[in-house]
Amino acid sequence: MNKHIFLTIIGLLWFFAGSIQAQPFFGYQTIGTNTWFVSVSWDGQPHLGAGYQFRNFGNGFTDFGAEWRVPVANGFQFQRYQVIAGAYRPVAVRRWFLGAGLHLRYRHGEGRDLSLLATAIPSYTYAASLNDGPYGTLGLRLGYEIQLLAQSGGGWNSFGSHGVNLGGHADLHLERTLGFSLNGILSRQWALSGGEAPASGWQRSGDLYMGSTYFLRR
Fold first, then answer.
1. Which one of 24, 47, 60, 153 is CB 3.0 to 4.6 Å from 209, fit for a cystine?
2. Stretch among 104-113, 167-176, 184-193 having the lowest mean pLDDT
3. The pTM is what?
């Protein structure tokens, strides 16, 4: 795709961030119940994404979300895409706290595979306004991923590879509605018995989420 077209798309995403909100699939702190978000991600090539997240209030809260991503180079032809769905929950939200997520990721392209990701995010709240000021957190990302199913040839194989994800998380929430989140990740995969060898060495990826909550539950 022409780089000018890609930059135009990025500019439009920033423009629409005033009416849709990011709460990414690894979560950040807000008070919204219903959230629509957009994302820009990179894993060797750029992707555009969109999704929805519901916050279940109770004793603390749990975020349930689903996200769809498509490579920019393939446009919206539905030949290559990812779907990520799961839950995120912080444990005893304080200045220092631990967030945890469990998600499924389905990738569709030349092949197809389904993975399970478990993530822990030790976090620090660097800004915590009680009015309409900024609210933000910083955290470390520690994750484990295992490939549950993968298509190989004409059939499917189970438990082909596993690996770790290491990185960082930063988010900022403004005026109780507008939010941004940034994740940077280093990941590495190893083949399990009978599985195909994954890409060697550490792989870099990252994502940016943005948007705004439309129901604050107040």
1. 24
2. 167-176
3. 0.81
